[in-house]
Amino acid sequence: MNIHEYQAKAILKEYGAPVSRGIPVFTAEEAEKAAHELGGPVWVVKSQIHAGGRGKGKFKELGAEAKGGVRVVKSVEDVKSSAAEMLGNTLVTEQTGEGGKQVNRLYIEEGAAIEKEFYLSMLIDRETSRVAFVVSTEGGMNIEEVAHDTPEKIITFSVDPATGVQPHHGRTVARALNLSGDLAKQAGALVNQLYAAFTDKDMALLEINPLVVTKDNELKVLDAKVSFDSNSIYRHADVAALRDETEEDAKEIEASKYDLNYIALDGSIGCMVNGAGLAMATMDIIKQYGMEPANFLDVGGGATTEKVTAAFKIITADPVVKGILVNIFGGIMKCDVIAQGVIQAVKDVGLQVPLVVRLEGTNVEAGKKLIGESGLNVIAADDLDDAAQKIVKAVKEAA
Fold first, then answer.
1. CATH 3.40.50.261 domain span(s) along the chain
2. CATH for 114-240, among 3.20.20.30, 3.30.470.20, 3.40.250.10, 3.40.50.12710?
3. pTM of the entire structure?
4. Does residue 379 have a known ligand-binding role?
5. E-strand spans in the chain?
């Protein structure tokens, strides 16, 4: 689960991390009031969306000359006018795609006199099962570009969960950023604060870009991106309350109600599969035969007829879907349950696009019989390769 920058900073502030003063707002009038409260003389008006690259982004409605989604201004009037321009309009960045995201809230923050910019992030290292730090002197830049062009400028290390964060971890960060004296002490304190926040709140990612040194010789968290392990949200009611569903795909929200693993994609063939590995293979083979999947959807090993029906309805509700491929290998998941769900869903919502069903495994004959006797216009497939070819062909013929 992702949260907004201002929410991430509020959490980090609870743990003592140095963040600038700021106020979230939802209207231009609130932005003006916030500017007066913060006092200036420099303010930063920041669009709050779940995507990076806001500063370089452009607003669809404001034309080619529009300023970005993060603006440094020097008057209360400019704070208000920027807020009026940004709120309700669609910000397009490298991470949002062409569709962009509508800006519904802003963060008005006091300006900072920046001397140096760094990059610092924390994430779960799956290979070592530890929390890893990633640190670089190249703050403010796309870390993927830094990794590609100058990998020697990225320092990584992990923390043993048996000991937790230790003083030498802070010294490692200070050396990586060429900090000494009081700044090195600040770096050590920040490492402790961030590690405590990361582990206490079950974060999956904490990214600070940039972490800056101000002209007053202070370390400051100038931006913060935080996401949480969705499997642990039930332990954190305070974190769950921060969820902004307007930033999420409506189909993904609906899928979460039924505990379905669903991710919307840009293709035209809807997929319903059981098992993440099989789902990935299904998407790959659709692409191999010249088309793109419209979603990743894993109904899981213990799906019920209700879940399968819900999954099918979510797929058919997507207007970009021009064909559907159901690919089930029954182990714990029984083929007849899938068949019952598909039949029920088609009866509820109808079937306007080609449907290919491939069933194999537990109760496969019962599942095939149910579909065969249902009267549905279904194309049967013998294996994954056969299924992929048939759905691609059917979609092309229907176009």
1. 250-398
2. 3.30.470.20
3. 0.81
4. no
5. 22-25, 43-47, 58-59, 70-73, 90-92, 101-102, 106-110, 114-125, 130-136, 154-159, 203-214, 219-221, 225-228, 261-264, 269-273, 295-298, 323-330, 355-361, 379-380
